[in-house]
Structures are given as C-alpha cells and as structure tokens.
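User: quick one
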Amino acid sequence: MSEYNFTAIEKKWQKFWLENKTFKTPAKSGKPKFYCLDMFPYPSGAGLHVGHPEGYTATDILCRYKRMKGFNVLHPMGWDAFGLPAEQYAVETGTHPAVTTKKNVDRFREQIRSLGFSYDWDREVNTTDPKYYKWTQWIFEQLYKKGLAYVAEVPVNWCPALGTVLANEEVIDGKSERGNHPVIRKPMRQWMLKITEYAERLLADLDTLDWPEGIKEMQRNWIGKSTGALVDFKTTGTDDTITVYTTRCDTLFGATYMVLSPEHALVAKWLAAGVVKNADAVREYQRKAASKSDLERTELNKEKTGVRLEGVEGLNPVNGGNIPIFISDYVLASYGTGAIMAVPAHDERDFDFAKVFNLPIVQVVAPADSEAAKNASPDPVPYSGECAFTDIASGVMVSSGFLTGLSVDDARKAMIAWLEEKGVGKAKTQYKLRDWLFSRQRYWGEPFPVINWEDGTRSLVEEEDLPLTLPELDDYKPTGTGEPPLAKAESWTNVVRADGVRGVRETNTMPQWAGSCWYYLRYIDPANDKAFADPELLKEWLPVDLYVGGAEHAVLHLLYARFWHKVLFDLGFVPTPEPFQRLVNQGMILGLAYKTKRGVLVPMDQIEWRDGKPYGKEDGGEMELLTEFPAKMSKSLKNVVNPDDVIRDYGADSLRLYEMFMGPLQAVKPWSTKGVEGVHRFLRRANKYVTETPLEDRELTKAEAKRLNAMVKKVGEDLESMNFNTAISAMMVYLNEAGATTTREAAEKFTLCLSPFAPHLGEELWQFLGHADTLAYEPWPAYDPKALVEDEIEIPVQVLGKLRGRVKVAAAATPAEMETAAKANAEVAKFLEGKTIVKVIAVPKRMVNFVVK
RNA sequence: GCCAGAGUGGCGUAAUGGCAGCCGCAGCAGACUCAAAAUCUGCCGCACGCGAGUGCGUGAGGGUUCGAGUCCCUCCUCUGGCACCA
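Assistant: Done. Structure below.
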C-alpha cells in the first residue's frame, strides 16, 4: 500500500462507519459524558462552503479524541430548515418549500458525510419535521400558559410597494433589499414574548458561563441595564402628569425643558383634546417621524429636530419652575417612558437640541477644583462650555439647593430619597432589551397553535392535537394587505367549536429562531413522542459542554435559546439554569480578492494569469498587475471555495487538516489552496512512514523515545486546549525528524495521534498495522515523562541581555556551575574581558546573564 | 463616539517574562530524469561584509526588569459589534 489513494480510502471508511453505526451514542453508560454541539446549518441551495467545515472539523477532532479518552460523546447534527429562501423560491416557481428543503437537506447531509464527521446520524433533527415542530409548538404553549406570550400592536417594517412585512435584515438603509422600495414603520398585530421578564437573570448568569469575554460583553450591552429614577412632572394647562426616566436625577435642578417622543400617548391625547395650539405643526412632525426608518432616525451628525407643544408646560418638581415641552424623534418611544427631562448642560444630546432651539443651559455640576464649584451660589448659573459636562466621577453639585456641594453619586441618592418622600418619583432599573417580536407574516414557519374565537376569547390547540401542521397552499405570494399567506387557506383557518362558536386560527407563523432555540434538547432524545425529551436523559446530558459556531449568533440566537432554557428550567422541564456551559466562536475563512491600483475589484473569472501573476484590464484597456488581498467569499467576486472540489483533488482528510492548520480556530484566516497541498504532502509522507518503512520489533532508542513521547504529549495537550494548528505542527516536526526508521510502537502511536485529525487515513493505517476493528475507541496513547528527561542541555549565555554564546551543561547544574561553564566559553569571555561583573543571573535549565560595567 | 479583539519575514503563523521567526506556503540552489512533473537534500528576516562576523529587527513612542513579541502607560492602524437607550 504505497499509494495514498485518498478517494478510495475515504469512501471505504465512511461506508464502514455508517453501516456499523460506529458513532452511535448510547443514551446512558458508565462513562463520563461529553456533549459537543455544532451550530446546525440552514441548508441553503448553494451547498456547503469552506466556512462550514471549520467549526465542524474542530468539534469532530475533539469528539474523536474524547472517545479515545474514555468519554461517552454526544455529537449530533441537524437542520435549521425553516426560513425565507425556500419560501421565496416557492413564490417564484410554485414548488412547495418542503420539496426544496428536502433536496437541500439531502445535499447538505451528503456533503457533510463526505468530510468524515463522527455524528450519530440516528439523532438527526429537522426543524420543519412535524414530529419536531410539534414540540416547538408545545414549548410555545408553555410560554403562553406562563403569561410570557402576548399579542400587541407594534411597529414593523412594512413595504407598501411589495405589500409585505420585512425582517430587519431585509431592510437596508430604509429600503427593501429586493427592489429597493421604501420601507416604513407600521404598527401591526404581532405576537411578543416577554424576554424582558428574564433580563436580570440573563444578565447575571452570564458570569457563570465559560464564554468568550467579548460575546458576554455584547450580551450585556444588548440587555443594557441602567439604574436611575422615574420622576413625575405636573403640567400646566392639563391635569396630566409626565413621567420621565432619567439616570441623572441629581441634575434635576438643571432640567430646562422636556421632550416627548412623537408617538407618546399624551401627545395624541392633547391633540385630540385641543390643548395644543400649534396642532398642525405637531401632526406634521409626527407624520414625518413615522415615515422614517430606525436608521434614518438615528443617523449620525444629524441636526436635532423637533416641535414645541404650545399651550402646555411642565413643572419642575424640585423648584416649581415652568419649562417648555417639545416632541422630537431623538427621544425613543420604546425606551424608558418615552419622555425625558432635558439637562442640556450635562447631556450631549440635550445640549445639541438646546443649541438648535436656543434654550437656556443651566450648570448644576462642575469640576471639583473649578471656580464654579468653590463659589457655589444658590442661583442658577448659565453654562458657557463648548459641550456638555458629563464627568460623573469628579463632578460636584452646584446651584442645586439641598444637593449643592455633594458628589454626583451622593446627590443621586439624596434626590431619590427626596423624590420618594414627596411622592413624585422613585428609583428604577431599566433595560434596553425589548420584548421579542415573535411572529412573521410568512408561510414557511411553525404555525401558532392558537385559535381566536368570535366571542373574543383565545385558546390553545389541545396538546394531544399537536402538531398543528401547515396547510397546503396553491400559491405562497404575500396577500398584499400584510395579512400572512396562511389566511388564504380558509378551510384550515376557519374552525367551529362543539358549541357552535366559530373561530379563526392564528395565521402568523413563528420566526426561524424558534426551532433553533431548543434543538440541542431534542438531540438528547430525538424519537420521543411523549415529551420533547426524557427528563432522566436531560439530567444525564445537560448542559452542553462545548458549543462551537460563528460569532454572528453572538446575541440573538444565544440570548433567545438561553431565555427558553430558563423558562423550561423554571417549569421544571430541564435540570440546569443555562444551556451552553462553554462557547467557542470559530473565525471566518476569507477568500482571496484582487484589485487594481485604483481600487477596482476584479472578479476571479475576469483575471488573466501571466507567468503566475494576475492581470486585469484597466479602464484604458491596458493590462494591469493586480494586488491580492483577503476578502469575504462572495458570489460577486466569484471567489467562493467549494469543499467538494477540495475533497476531489486532495481528499477530506487534507481539507480537515488544512482548515485546522491555517491558524487558531478563533482567528479570521484567508484561504490558500497552496496550503492544502502542503498538508496533503504531509499526509502522503505519514502514509509512507507507516506503510513503507520496515516496522522493527525492538526497543526505541533514547532519541526515538524522546521524539515520540514529546509528540504524544504535545498533541494531547494541544487537543485539550483546542490549539489544533500547533498539534498538527508537532506531528509534522515528528515526521520530519523520525526519518526512515520506525518501530511498531512508534507507528501505532503516531497513527492514533493522527487519527482524530485525519480519521480515514488513521483507520486505514490502523488496519494496515493488523488491527481488525475501528480505532475510534482505542485508548489515547500515554506518554512517558521519564523519556523526556534530558541529561545535558544547551543554554544561552547573555552579556547585558545580549546573546553572546551557548554552553552545554548538565540538566541538574547549579547556578554556580552554570556560571563557571559560561565564563569558560570563548565567545562569552571576549565580551567579559576588561569588564567588572556586577551581577550574575543564572536560572537553572534556562540561561545565564552577566551584568557588567 | 462607545465596547471587544488584533498588529511578528514575501504570505499563513509559532514562541510558561529567558536563544524571535518552530511548522507550512512561496522563492532559490542541488540530486534523480533524455526532459518535465512528482519526490528527496540544502538555503531562505533586513543591512554591511568574500568570510568569520557585526549592527538592526515583533505597528509608533515612553516605562518596569539583569532580560520585554510577552507586563504597564500614551498613541496609530485594522477587524468585528453597538450606536440619540436619557
């Protein structure tokens, strides 16, 4: 077997693993468990790209290693198969999304199998399978019964030209991604989930997770906890009270105006009651604000706009002063109370607004060592700074009545006490996190198991009647009114109760996140039709020990899944408060792109290669040498690398090895096909080393034993820490040095070390070495620490920190012995001559350094 | 603007505070070959030097240390995320 016939070898072992169910995971065993989860893919029509196998290879290597270390490993794969592309394809061609989905899933499964991953295929799940989404609906019913699901009118992305509601990611710069039509925010009836009720726990429990610090920080920012106070402002001209939320209640003496969001309920009320004198201008401003997308409203460097409400004024509760009220879109309806007190001297946004409208700016906080702080007068001081003063740490209160002289921190506490005593405010914790908009006006998603009755009541579909399956439709086009496509299936939507009361089924469907919120639970007991999973098995396997996937899911998927898990935990259905104990994000794999001097990107198929150098046509028609740089793989640049091609040319083992050899798993790395050739050569040499070098049956020499044991040690340690690139490097170093002689022991240990990385070749070599069974459950080779001990070592000698020579000393040499040996070295002596030795640093087994004068 | 991460040969990268550049790619030279491919061997940070060697060198500038790619401070650049959240 001298040829490395990777195609035949890989087919052979993939068939073997599948037929023998080599990686079937027993539900229970006496072994310690290791639950290793990949983020399951959306099976797109384009098939896998080289980014998918990166994380999957890393987890596969780790799983194979853990099996050899004696763990019972749960390593499943499935499909997140609801979603827009299949539905859009259905709209265009009339093909049922289930048909498209099945085709894509089959393709994905075949591609994934061709990489030799050790998944337990008996646990495959598919979110579009009614047997699966029965339980997605069941979990929704639990949320509903717990009062965490409700219906509300909320603004959504409505595209009048397309007659449909769009997801946030389908809206780019306020226009529809398809067709570039304007999109406006329109209030529509939607299902919401009360994730906000879990905000504090979702925040606090992050501290218990072994996740990348950056991801935890992103979730913290997303949840956005802030502590402040609610303050009530009475109004003149009406009996209403405006409640504002502020984190700076200490600056209440400096509040010189108020701002309501254009959507604030009191604005509408006052307009209706005729209290507002300039109603036309106010209505016009509201109309303009409503037609703006979120992006337009938050655009940077934008001049502040707004309209004063004439006829109503606010009363500052702390000093009774009359202050004007504005509406402006810089105040968001959905945060806090939708109303603010404006303190222009100490808030950038209020400062900008006050400048535009020429409003008074009153200073109430000053730097501790400033004149203003020393000569604290009780009268208001106009603020003359260029921008707002926001230094909370060193600021001191001025011109603020009973707060004057206090630090910002103390002033806050004092003010809250004052507000509570007077009954005009109280402390309040606020979160940026909003409730989760949980419905889509789409066909290809889980139907809500909900019936709205004509008597105004609403009921859930009985548990025993789940799943509520999707009805067949003739066409999947949007209705044009914003009504979901399911409304067209009248025989499905219209139902009659035993007592004759008629009802209509919910026609919204769930978002794609729903199915992916709990799939890791279903893997544990995928065929169970009595429960989403057996509680005993959940106890056995949870939490997931390692979850690997792209950082694009840093916030939404991971936050939603944590939320559902906590709800299930509270209901006693899962035994842990968190689903994913450890999380690792793999870095994106970039492709190569080419550009001209003037920065024009040239797609791969328009490049002319001359003497191995890329040229592209310039504007003038001249051929120009292009510069190469890494860029995201994209259809437009035509630089997408297809794993099928790599497997055909170099084999799955080479692809796996290269993906891991490129660099650290977490890093962003550019793809290089030349690099694949490099690791492919290594596999060929490895094959030759085992199969063509005579296997001697003898003791290893001391040098051989050291080499072998050092490699085994390094590979094992690097696997534990997921440093796959350096583990591969260690095996390359070993093979480079091991040369043309080997023993059975060395060949077997090398094969076992290589096998998690290149499992097909590993199995083939193991069989060549005379073993009848798979190596998947062979014990991981142990290394002998004694073989690594050296008698004599070479250490560097420095003079004034510069390397001047090397000497050999006994490994156990004392500092004094090292110093003597170092001085004896001719090179070193040259630099010591004529100098006084001030100090000698001799670190055993490390180095010697002379400090001289 | 805010938060996080990263800057090391031509390129991907490696280095418990202790010999910077392991391993791989590309390149150069040689062996084998009629020749090419494949394979094997050697060289391969920059400058000066025939050479031995010397000097410089981990984004920039400071600092701590006998000794800094690694630790501290300031700054620059890039990548990702968030962004009027009161």
